[in-house]
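Handover notes (outgoing to incoming on-call)

Open items:
1. NmrA/HSCARG family protein: sequence verified, structure written out, both below. Nothing else pending on this one.
2. Nothing else urgent.
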Amino acid sequence: MLDTPIVAVAGATSKQGRSVVRSLLQGGGYRVRALTRDPASQVAQSLERQGAELVAGSLSLGSDDAWVDAFSGARAAFLVTPPTPPRGSREYELGCRIADAAVRAGVEHVVFSALENVDETTGGKLFAPHFTDKARVAEYISGLPVASTFVILSFFYTNLMEYYVPRVEDGSLVLPIYLPEDFRAPFVDPVTATGPAVREIISKPERYDGETLPIVGDVISPREMVRTFQDVTGLRAEYRDAFTYDGLARNFPELVADDLHAQEILGMVNYAVEYGYFRQDRDLEWSRSIDPEALTWEQFLRATGWRGEARSYG
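NmrA/HSCARG family protein C-alpha cells:
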C-alpha cells in the first residue's frame, strides 16, 4: 500500500474533482489525496468514505505553503481553478501559483483543466476571461520543469440545471439555452466524464505529456436537446433564446445585472458559435474512444432523472 502512487486532487469537491477522485479510487492502483477547503463538509466526508485522504487546501491566494505540503509525496496532481467572476479576477495568478506549489513539492506530472484562449483566437474581439485565463495558465505550466497534460471540458449539461434553469409557461416547460437553436455544440457531464479521462492520462504520462485533450459526451443542438428532453421525460418543452443579450436579459435578468458578467457570458457563447468551441486541430473523438460509456445528453437525462427542476452540483 505504501508503494502505491499518490495522486493529489486540488478542488476535490468540485464537479471535476469529485469525478477524478472517484475514478482513481474505483479503478484501484492509486492512493488519492483530496485537497478541499472544508474537510468537514458532506461532500468531503463522502470522498473520505470512498477511500480518499482529506487534506485542508483552499483554492485561494495565500495558501502556497499549504499546497506544497498537500502535494508532497504525490506522483501526479490534477489541478482545477474555481469559477471566478471577471471583475478583478486573479484566476491566472491563482492557477500559476498552484502549479508552482506542485512543482516545488516534487510532483512529476500535472494535469490541468484548461479552456481555449478566446482572446488569442479572436484577436481580442471577444471577451471571455475565464476561458483565456485558463489557457494562459496552461501555457505557463507548459514552461515549468514538470510533465504536463491539459484537458478541456465541453459545455456542461449541468449548466441547464444550475444557471439556466427552465420555467413553466402556458403549460409547457421553457428551456432558455445559451446557444442558437440549430447550432450543434459539444456538451459533457463533468461529474462522470472527467475522471475516466484523467485516469487514462495519469496512467500513461509519457504518452500524454504535452497534449491538450477535449472531453466530449455529445455534440448536439438546443433543438435536439429539447426534443430529446421531451422524449425522455414525456413533458412538453420549448426552446427559448438565451444567446442574445435581449434573450439573456428577458430570461435571466440576474445574469445581466453586472455588465461585465453579461459581456463575458455573451463573449463565451459568441466565441463558440463564430470560431468553434474547440480549436480545429483538437481530437474530439479521443475521450469517447477511451471512455465509451461517456454519457450522451439522452443518457444523462435517463441517468439523472432530471425533469427541469433546479439542482446544485457544487
